[in-house]
Amino acid sequence: MPLNKKIAVFDLDGTLTESKQLITAEMAALLDRLAERVIVGVISGASFKQFEKQLLPRLVSPRTVLGAKPAGRLVLLPTSGSQRYESKNNQWELVSETPFDPSLRAKVMSALREIVVDPAFGLAILPERLADYAEDRRTQITFSALGQTAPIEIKRLWDPDQQKRLKIKARLEALVPEAEINLGGTTSIDILPKGFNKAVGLKLWLADQNISPAELVFVGDAVYPGGNDYSVLAAGMETIKVAGPAETAPVIKNWLTD
């Protein structure tokens, strides 16, 4: 079934790729074909640096349509859309950024130091090692309970029902009510200024392009209350929930069928 939208947006980890893994050649090829028909966006709690490692090497290359002409066909929205990168003159440029107040950043880090030493959460993280688990992405702080580089097999087993992270989320919300806190990936918690989420990031982009939210479809895995993809559904944008890249690929293939 052809896609009757102007924009197709995808989450990264758990949707286009496995956690912190390079996009497969098959998925990259599907996105490349899709970009011939609609604008493709990728929004994630990950940093732009992670996009460069995980997405761009295969998606934007001399052998792809996007590699030859990414401008206007591919938009990158790291840190839950609080940053937006577009291709200009064959380089990725930061064109929009929502600031994270330094005082809020300090309060978040203080709260995390309190949580990691609380036996109720069972994290076994030394406060002096917190920087290895709480990554400051400038416009977002992401807390990864097992660290960014833990093996995917271990990540999957740690919090499959999200209950451990929901417990941490509840404590963070009590300690830092000025922050927006949602779960992402398999072990991560994304922390942004209150009121900012992926839906807001997408709406800012759409407003800049003078495109209605009705012209966008979103595909993500964390589409559940407390998940960092849920805000898109709650905002009324068309949303397709998947359980991983294996479910995303058929969605794209279906759109490419004339």
UniProtKB/TrEMBL annotation:
Q: Where does alpha-D-mannose 1-phosphate bind?
A: R137, S188, D190
Q: Which SUPFAM superfamilies match?
A: HAD-like
Q: Which residues bind Mg(2+) per the record?
A: D11, D13, D221
Q: Which domain of life is it from?
A: Bacteria
GO MF term (any one): phosphomannomutase activity
Q: In which pathway does it act?
A: Nucleotide-sugar biosynthesis; GDP-alpha-D-mannose biosynthesis; alpha-D-mannose 1-phosphate from D-fructose 6-phosphate: step 2/2
So where's the catalytic machinery, residue-wise? D11, D13
> Under the cellular component aspect of Gene Ontology, which terms does the record hold?
cytosol
Give me the segments passing through the membrane: none
GO:BP terms for this protein? GDP-mannose biosynthetic process; mannose metabolic process; protein N-linked glycosylation
Question: Is Amino-acid biosynthesis one of the keywords UniProt gives this record?
Answer: no
Keyword annotations from UniProtKB, A to Z? Cytoplasm, Hydrolase, Isomerase, Magnesium, Metal-binding
Q: Where in the cell is it found?
A: Cytoplasm
* Alphabetical list of InterPro entries matching this protein: HAD-like_sf, HAD-SF_hydro_IIB, HAD_sf, PMM, PMM_cap
Under Enzyme Commission nomenclature, its number is 5.4.2.8
- Binding partners and assembly: Homodimer.
Q: Which family does it belong to?
A: Belongs to the eukaryotic PMM family.
User: Which PANTHER family does this entry report, sorted A to Z?
Assistant: PHOSPHOMANNOMUTASE
Protein name, as recorded: phosphomannomutase
Whose protein is this, by species? Candidatus Vogelbacteria bacterium CG10_big_fil_rev_8_21_14_0_10_49_38
